[in-house]
TrEMBL record, chain A:
Residues 45-340 form the Exostosin GT47 domain. It is a single-pass type II membrane protein. It is found in: Golgi apparatus membrane. Belongs to the glycosyltransferase 47 family. GO terms for molecular function: glycosyltransferase activity. The keyword Nucleotidyltransferase does not apply. GO terms for cellular component: Golgi membrane. Coiled coil: none annotated. This is Beta-1,4-xylosyltransferase IRX10. It comes from Cardamine amara subsp. amara.
From TrEMBL, chain B:
This is Glycosyltransferases. GO terms for molecular function: xylosyltransferase activity. The lineage of its organism: Eukaryota, Viridiplantae, Streptophyta, Embryophyta, Tracheophyta. SUPFAM superfamilies: Nucleotide-diphospho-sugar transferases (SSF53448). Residues 463-482, 502-514 have a biased composition (Polar residues). Involved in the synthesis of glucuronoxylan hemicellulose in secondary cell walls. Residues 444-520 are annotated as: Disordered.
Length: 412, 520
């Protein structure tokens, strides 16, 4: 009797393992340095309190220019909307673990749609003055349990030009807060160690509308569409993308394996789905929505940006998913790519095919489990519980409210 | 070009100035600094004007020359001089770090530096063929993986039923079917039913396929008339279906007659059948008689003007909602009375009313016990041993349940053809010429002047010389003195111009020569 039970149990186990192995042929589980956290549910792990700011900080800006909802910096707006209706939101600030300030600093656009960062420091400063005077929670920790979404080119340095951004550094008032930003580069002034790097906003519906059947064979080896030289801002070349994009063009424009050009084809998304490798080189800033597009379309991202910090780097093992090429190795890009063993390439494709990977890169409306919003909350939850040292004693001041360029001190 | 560059730089200035104007505004506001600000503004405008004239960024050059001593204090070059580098532009070498402000602020631990970098280009920026090969191998492997994962969700086995018998054209026909089946990307079982029992001839041919074959023998000889032959083939097919039933083979049964030609799309399309399906066949009623063809074509044109055009297609007919309403049958009227009766007749060979090759069925229909077997199918096991079914629809109680495939019969997926040699034509077994040729007979029309012609044999008299061919028959049984070996029949005219071999009298045994034997 017992033998029969044992035998049936073993058979059942084998059958289950076989069936699960069968499922794993198509995709592979993703577990980063923080473990298998992509599918964690943040509800119950943290509580977020959303400050009530006057609408001049958020809604009025959006009314003035609704383009803010569709450009790649739209994450700040959608994060606000998500938090307002999320289960982690609490209306009792005393039990909140994190505090969110709904402010849209990038929603100040030029006629061509680029954000002007010149008023952002003043806007941020004015908002912080407001919350520090109306609520006691800022002064309690000087912002250490507050988080801000700053999806600018160089994060909270609030400038689009790298030199100027470096010169400014992170806004002094935000030194203790946690920054949720798209910019990530190691050993850079504008990246704080405990920032959370998020993907730039890419419109999910637009990408879903261009999906093609997965059995169409991938016949393009390397794909890239974009600028190689920025003649408007860098006419002599060598400055834009630290010369990496120009190097790609000069070395591989004659190579039929590399489908690279500056065209704007209507089949851009479909072409990415027919490619094996998609180049994601740096531009003026190291990050770009190309990474998100490559992940969604199953094209292995080839990241050419030295020292870049990719989104959710503790939850997603980017080394196993993408290919990292140093900027100095660009002339040997074809050798590097063809010398990757095919098993490694197939494994990368399997990891990319994992739906939780694609979900984690997107900001869908309405929010879905496992999407980027939830990954941000997971990241915030992983920082809990707060260290007791962040709570300052009375009259202890750490931040310097008068630091920074003179122009920032003006009221907004 | 220069003008457009100037225009570009002007626009550049505009866009740059648009972006940077607020900073100027903010700096101007500070009191005491206004004079300096104005000075910088004037200098900026001057530099702009000079740049417009010169066509490059003058201000940067000035800064470089002014601060060239301090540039040596800046951090080291971002590119290594040991790498073979070609620079596009002199300015790029010169402008390593023209912005002196940026230098002092970067963190010392950062490897990545802001500023102008060189554009690295390797000495031979062209594709390396070995790498191209490797890339293509990678692409192939990825596509193969895609196919296995996403291609066919579940492909059914194809069970091909081919009735055959040993005759001259068997090698031609069977090789054609075999090669088509070898290309099918799905699992395949090939049931070859042979009239006259299992023979080595057929076994040799089908063994080369590498497919899973079941060679069934049917111990009666194939009759000599087309009508009887098709009836006989029905019996053979039914025998094959019995094998499917007994072995409980699972898949889609299709009838691959050995003289038909199949397209690859046929095999993809029949995967979609659920129980009983039909496809459109192209009917090639070949007559082989050129004069007859011409006459019948004229006749046919007259008929066509009267009636609607008769397409040589047999297949399902559908109404507008893609439901099966009937069948297109090949119009045999033009051939009435002139069709071939005997297998070697030189006339059009007509198909039956409904050819079996246009039908496919799920093998489970034949099984005794199969779940979800529909009720409109007759029980296959209850068929009589020697009952000849009129058409495959006789297997069903309700012929309207047949599924039309190939977008409701619009696609013709295979072609039906019957071509055979004369009934008495001979061919070397296994198509191996062994023993070597010993008997040759002179071609009637070919002038071989040196050698006196041997008296013609009885066989030659039987030949239909009205065709204008110079065909020979080499009977193995009769020993005859050979004079020459003749050339293939269609080149009769050319034979006259070809050089004649001079040592013909010595040729008795032509073992070393490889010539085509003449066969009808």
């Amino acid at each position: 009797m017992k033998n029969r039970y044992c035998l049936s149990a073993i058979l059942l186990f084998l059958f289950l393992s076989a069936s699960s192995a069968e499922h794993n042929v198509r995709t592979e589980r993703i577990s980063g340095s923080a473990g298998d956290v992509l599918e964690d549910n943040p509800v119950g792990k943290l509580k977020v309190y959303v400050y009530e700011l006057p609408s001049k900080y958020n809604k009025k800006l959006l009314q003035k220019d609704p383009r803010c909802l569709t450009h790649m910096f739209a994450a700040e707006i959608f994060m606000h909307r998500f938090l307002l209706s999320s289960a982690v939101r609490t209306r009792n600030p005393d039990e909140a673990d994190w505090f969110y300030t709904p402010i849209y600093p990038t929603c100040d656009l030029t006629p061509t749609g680029l954000p002007l960062p010149f008023k952002s420091p003043r806007m941020m400063r004015s908002a912080i003055q407001l919350i520090s005077s109306n609520w006691p929670y800022w002064n309690r920790t000087e912002g250490a349990d507050h988080f801000f979404v700053v999806p600018h080119d160089f994060g909270a340095c609030f400038h689009y030009q790298e030199e100027k951004a470096i010169e400014r550094g992170i806004l002094p008032l935000l030194k203790r807060a946690t920054l949720v930003q798209t910019f990530g580069q190691r050993n850079h002034v504008c990246l704080d160690e405990d920032s959370i790097t998020i993907p730039p906003f890419a419109p999910p519906q637009k990408m879903q509308a261009h999906l093609i059947p997965p059995d169409i064979p991938r016949s393009i080896f390397v794909y890239f569409r974009g600028l190689f030289y920025d003649v408007n801002n860098d006419p002599e070349g060598g400055y834009y993308a630290r010369g990496a994009r120009a190097a790609v063009w000069e070395n591989f424009k004659n190579n039929p394996l590399f489908d690279i050009s500056t065209d704007h084809p209507t089949t851009y998304y479909e072409d990415m789905q027919r490619s094996i490798f998609c180049l994601c080189p740096l531009g003026w800033a190291p990050w770009s929505p190309r990474l998100v597009e490559a992940v969604v379309f199953g094209c292995i991202p080839v990241i050419i940006a030295d020292d870049i910090v990719l989104p959710f780097a503790d939850a997603i093992p980017w080394e196993e998913i993408g290919v990292f090429v140093g900027e100095k190795d660009v002339p040997e890009l074809d050798t590097i790519l063809t010398s990757i063993p095919t098993e490694v390439i197939l494994r990368k494709q399997r990891l990319l095919a994992n739906p939780s990977m694609k979900r984690a890169m997107l900001f869908p409306q309405p929010a879905q489990p496992g999407d980027a919003f939830h990954q941000i909350l997971n990241g915030l939850a992983r920082k809990l519980p707060h260290n007791k040292s962040i709570y300052l004693k009375a009259d202890e001041k750490v931040l310097n409210w008068t630091a920074g360029p003179v122009g920032d001190l003006k009221p907004w | 070009m220069k003008l457009s560059a100037l225009h570009q730089s002007y626009l550049n200035r505009r866009s740059n100035s648009f972006r940077s104007s607020p900073t100027l505004d903010s700096s101007v506001d500070s009191s005491g600094k206004s004079l300096i600000a104005v000075f910088w503004l004037i200098l900026h405008c001057l530099c702009c004007l000079i740049s417009l004239v010169l066509g490059f960024r003058f201000s940067r050059l000035v800064f470089f020359f002014l601060f060239s001593t301090s540039s040596t204090n800046l951090y080291s070059a971002p590119f290594r001089p040991d790498l073979p580098i070609k620079h596009l532009d002199v300015h790029t070498i010169v402008g390593r770090n023209l912005d002196p402000f940026g230098a002092n602020v970067t963190k010392s631990s950062s490897r990545v530096v802001v500023g102008r970098h060189g554009i690295r280009i390797r000495p031979w920026p062209h594709p390396n063929p070995i790498e191209v090969m490797k890339a293509h191998q990678i692409i192939e492997r990825v596509q193969k993986e895609q196919k296995t994962i996403f291609g066919m969700k579940s492909s059914k086995t194809i069970i091909a039923v081919t009735p055959t018998y040993v005759r001259t054209f068997q090698a031609l026909h069977l090789s054609g079917v075999m090669h088509s089946l070898m290309l099918v990307p799905y699992d395949l079982i090939w049931i070859v039913v042979e009239a006259g029992g299992v023979s080595n001839e057929t076994s040799l041919i089908i063994a080369k396929s590498g497919l899973k074959t079941i060679h069934v023998g049917f111990n009666q000889r194939m009759p000599n008339t087309w009508e009887d032959r098709s009836k006989f083939e029905v019996l053979m097919r039914l025998q094959a279906l019995r094998v499917v039933k007994e072995e409980k083979l699972d898949g889609v049964v299709m009838f691959a007659d050995d003289s038909n030609m199949h397209s690859m799309e046929l095999f993809d399309e029949i995967q979609n059948v659920s129980w009983f399906g039909t496809v459109s066949i192209g009917i090639l009623a070949h007559s082989g008689n050129a004069e007859e063809m011409v006459m019948s074509m004229d006749r046919r044109k007259e008929i066509d003007e009267e009636e609607s055009s008769s397409l040589p297609v047999q297949g399902p007919a559908c109404n507008a909602t893609n439901k099966l309403i009937g069948w297109h049958i090949f119009n045999t009227l033009p051939y009435a009375g002139k069709s071939a009766v005997y297998i070697d007749d030189v006339a059009a060979v007509l198909p039956q009313k409904l050819e079996w090759s246009g039908f496919v069925l799920n093998s489970r229909l034949l099984w005794e016990e199969a779940e979800n077997k529909p009720e409109w199918v007759k029980d296959f096991g209850s068929l009589n041993e020697n009952e000849v079914l009129e058409s495959p629809l006789s297997l069903l109680k309700d012929p309207s349940m047949v599924e039309p495939l190939g977008t409701c019969g619009k696609q013709v997926l295979l072609w039906w053809l019957r071509v055979e040699a004369r009934a008495d034509s001979k061919f070397p077994p296994g198509w191996m010429i062994d023993p070597p040729l010993e008997i040759t007979v002179e071609a009637k029309r070919t002038p071989w002047p040196e050698v006196p012609p041997e008296p013609p044999t009885k066989k030659k008299d039987q030949m239909s010389l009205s065709q204008g061919n110079t065909d020979m028959v080499i009977p193995k049984q009769q020993q005859q003195h050979s004079t020459k070996i003749r050339k293939p029949k269609r080149k009769s005219k050319r034979n006259k111009h070809e050089p004649k071999p001079t040592d013909t009298t010595t040729i008795q045994v032509s073992s070393s020569l490889s010539k085509h034997q003449e066969r009808n």
